[in-house]
Structure formats: C-alpha cells, structure tokens
Fold:
Amino acid sequence: MQGQTAIAIATPNIAFVKYWGDRDPRLHIPANGSISMNLDGLSTHTQVTFDASFRHDQLILDGKPATGAPLQRVSEFLERVRRLAGWYWNARVVSTNNFPTAAGIASSASAFAALALAASSAMGLQLSERDLSRLARLGSGSACRSVPGGFVEWQPGRDDFDSYGFSIAPPDHWDLADCIAIVSRGQKSVGSIEGHMLAETSPLQKARIADTPLRLKLCRQAISERDFDILANVTELDCQLMHAVMITSTPPLLYWQPVTQLLTRTIQSWRKNGLPVCYTIDAGPNVHVLCPSSYITQVTDQLMQIPGVSKVLVARPGGPARLEK
Ligand code: PMV
Structure:
C-alpha cells in the first residue's frame, strides 16, 4: 500500500473571553468556557503523510526539521490518531505558518486544528466537526476553536466527550477586523501549557472563573446584536482579568512589554474620543486591536505611528479548518 497523505489549512483564533487554566491538564478540559473569532488570512498549512517505510515520525516546521519537545508533542498527538484509526504507520508532517510562531498569536491553535484534520483524513477517518474539534483540543486547548468557522464558543464540558468548540455565528455575520500590532517576533519564554498549570496558584483565578458565565453571556449578546460597545467592554475586562491572574501566579508570568502597556492606554483613549476600537492580548506582548472593518485603514495607520510597533497584520473573521483538494 502506498503512503496516505492529506493537506489541511486552519486559521488561528483570537479569544474575546479567554481560556486560562485547566480542570484536567492531560485532556485540556478548561476551567472556563471561552469565545473567539477565527482569523482569516493568517493560516497554518499542514501536509501529513503516513508511510509504512518511515522509521519514525518527522516534523518539518517552516522549512526546518524540528526535534525535541515540538516533535514529541506532534508525535504524541499522531499516536492518538493512530489509535483512533487502528493502524500504526509513522508520519511526516510538513507545516508552515504565514505569521510569527509562538509570539502571542495562537500558532498552536491553527497548528493542531490543521494537524487534526490532515492526520485524521490521511488515515481515512471521517470525523464530524464536533469530533474533530475534540481531537484538536487534545493537541492544544484553543485549537478546538479553530475547527468550526466564524465566531466560536468552546463549551468547557466535564470530560473528553463534551468539551468542544461550535460556531455561534458564521464569518459574514459581523464585519469585524483584528489589526494585530506586532511589537515582538521573538518566541515567548513560558508557553501556554506551563502557564495554564500556574493559573491555580493565583488567588485571583477563582474570582475570574466565578465571573466567567456573565462575561460569556455579554459576549454572546455582543456578537448576536453586533454591539461593538458591549464587545469592547467585555473583551478588555476579560483580557485584564487573565493577565491579572498571570502576574499574580507563582512564579509570576508577565508577557507584556512597555509598548504593550502603552498600546492599551492609547487604544482606550482612541475609544473615548469616538473611534470604535478595543484591545486584547494573549500569552505574548503583541496587541490585538479589534474594530469594525470600515476602520481598518485608520486604525492601522494610527498604530504604525506608535514607536515600537513594527508591523500590523490584519485579519477578518475566518472560516473553518478545511482540506486542500
Ligand atoms: O491553547 P493554548 O494552550 O495555547 O492556550 C491559549 C491561551 C490564550 O491564547 C492565552 C487564551 C485563549 O483562550 O486563546
């Protein structure tokens, strides 16, 4: 039998209500529900080939062979897919991102959404969207939100079976944009897997979790009514709550750089002066600036004038993970 191959493409996503901390770290069952938007135009493109002649799994990431922890993480994920399919050939995974890896743009989300789809398809599994989202979650929690399209909610669930992402609105529901101010292209020092494990050491995590149902409700309402003010308030509050947990963990995690803080203040002052913008920040220093898409040019131009902002990437609401034919 010849090697089995498939190619999949997935976008990262930006969470308005964020996932931080696990109830079950092994299965990535999150401590709280979350809501995000897929980011069109940014993508991970992944080809997976299973072949009886391969002596071990291989990973080529952005043109370079990967070894050590990244290869092991991918190999452990492939092992789950092999177990699902019931056959055990090794694989070659060739993956490229068209955006900076591991710098607070959720590269692991698009990476594991694309890997879940390509690997399961190459093995002949035809998984439902829900099962694909559950599978992607096992690679990286937030990857379950990059499987369905548009605006996506991750139902935390209690176990592997009922923890998955589902679409709450299609990409064309709301013409929003994420203008990502790049302030650093460096790899972050503490990845999110370690970060999730520290969340419980913060005395603020309990309060953050307890308040999440209200933020989720407001966020659903903002999306269904396309209400930018509600979205701005809930997104910024949620971002600050997550970073408050991070900086009060033991040891503390501080992903921000001085320009990150400057951007949060600047964006709030732009909004006070009538510009519909708000910010959110993941586990890195870059700042995601949300606005209705008619303001993209103005927001991008203004961001580029801030010293320390090297580039602005623009993304509109993206579709689901898909196979390349
Ligand atoms: O899926 P992970 O383990 O990379 O965690 C994602 C964590 C945040 O990006 C900070 C928040 C989120 O919900 O995307």
Residues 15, 18-20, 34, 106, 108-109, 140-142, 192-193, 282-283 surround PMV (CB under 6 Å). The first helix runs from residue 68 to 85. The chain is about 35% helix and 25% strand.
